[in-house]
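Project outcomes to date are best conveyed with an example. Our students and postdoctoral researchers have been running inverse folding experiments weekly, and each run begins with a structure described purely in tokens. The record below, which covers 171 residues, was selected by the lab manager from last quarter's runs and is presented without edits.
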């Protein structure tokens, strides 16, 4: 789709559906990264300026759209998937081995047909500006992580966390 200036591509990267991948300026796509913009009705992957995607990471659309703002760092071996819409704000840090999955949850209400045949419930994910997602965290669909929020390492985020309040400075 579009590649800005000063974009660095590592070795053995995979670009699937490249007409729906849009990269800003000063983007670094490290070794063995997969960018997959698959889907029929979606617009694809939009990556802002000054973004680094760590090696072995996967950024994938599953018929959804994925927007990554400016000045974002995604640690190595992370997996971000969009079933409808995933929006990551500006100045966000995402640690290594994080899973941000807006790909949907399986419906499981019936016992007469297999779970895989029951379809999915797909929900959006929003991560606000200046948020930090600790190493090894997992974020489920339907979650909003607010501006300036901090998610600790290894967290499983199943509910929205909209506000971070810093402790009062000591005199």
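After processing, the design step wrote out the following sequence:
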């Amino acid at each position: 789709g579009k590649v800005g200036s000063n974009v660095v591509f590592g070795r053995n990267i995979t670009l699937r559906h490249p007409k729906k991948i849009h990269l800003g300026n000063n983007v670094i796509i490290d070794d063995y990264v997969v960018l997959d913009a698959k889907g029929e009705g979606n617009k694809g992957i939009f990556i802002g300026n000054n973004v680094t995607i760590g090696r072995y990471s996967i950024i994938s659309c599953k018929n959804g759209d994925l927007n990554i703002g400016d000045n974002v760092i995604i640690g190595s071996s992370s997996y971000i998937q969009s079933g409808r819409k995933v929006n990551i704000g500006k100045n966000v840090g995402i640690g290594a081995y994080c899973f941000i999955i807006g790909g949907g949850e399986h419906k499981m209400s019936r016992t007469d047909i297999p779970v895989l045949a029951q379809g999915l419930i797909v929900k959006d994910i929003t991560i606000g500006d200046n948020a930090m997602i600790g190493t090894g965290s997992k974020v489920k669909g339907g979650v909003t992580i607010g501006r300036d929020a901090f998610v600790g390492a290894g967290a499983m985020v199943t509910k929205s966390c909209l506000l971070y309040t810093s402790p009062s400075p000591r005199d």
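The first strand starts at residue 2 and ends at 3. The CA atoms of residues 109 and 118 lie 8 Å apart. The training component of this project remains on track.
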